[in-house]
Specification:
Blueprint: E1 3-7, E2 10-13, E3 18-25, E4 34-39, E5 46-51, E6 57-59, E7 67-72, E8 77-82, E9 91-97, E10 100-101, E11 105-110
Parallel strand pairs: 2-11
Antiparallel strand pairs: 1-3, 3-8, 4-5, 4-9, 5-6, 7-8, 9-10, 9-11
Length: about 110
């Protein structure tokens, strides 16, 4: 059974940093492209970043230069390093592949 478990969220001041992790089990992790999304209260889920099985990355414009997606195939884990966080980026952050989703981790950025 496929399982995705996010961690690393928390409360941070504006301008601060957090590193999110998503541990994946029940599948051959290294074969899959992975993505991070976020959903703020009352808003639609928004794609944030993706990484291919080969390690190529792509980001939504608003996080370019501040966020970094990476993966460790030995640990079946994908990461999202978030720097210079903004209050408007307060949301539940979720990882996903092939329409499989984790439960999310809350990120709260205070002003």
């Amino acid at each position: 059974q496929v399982q995705l478990v996010e961690s690393g969220g928390g409360l941070v001041q504006a301008g601060g940093s957090l590193r999110l992790s998503c541990a994946v089990s029940g599948t051959i992790f290294r074969l899959h492209a992975m993505a991070w999304y976020r959903q703020a209260p009352g808003k639609q889920r928004e794609w944030v970043a993706s990484i291919t099985s080969g390690g190529a990355t792509i980001y939504t414009d608003s996080v370019k230069g501040r966020f970094t997606i990476s993966r460790d195939n030995a640990k079946n884990t994908v990461y999202l390093q978030m720097n210079t966080l903004k209050p408007e980026e307060t949301a539940v952050y979720l990882c996903s592949y092939n329409n499989n989703w984790g439960q999310g981790t809350q990120v709260t950025v205070s002003s």
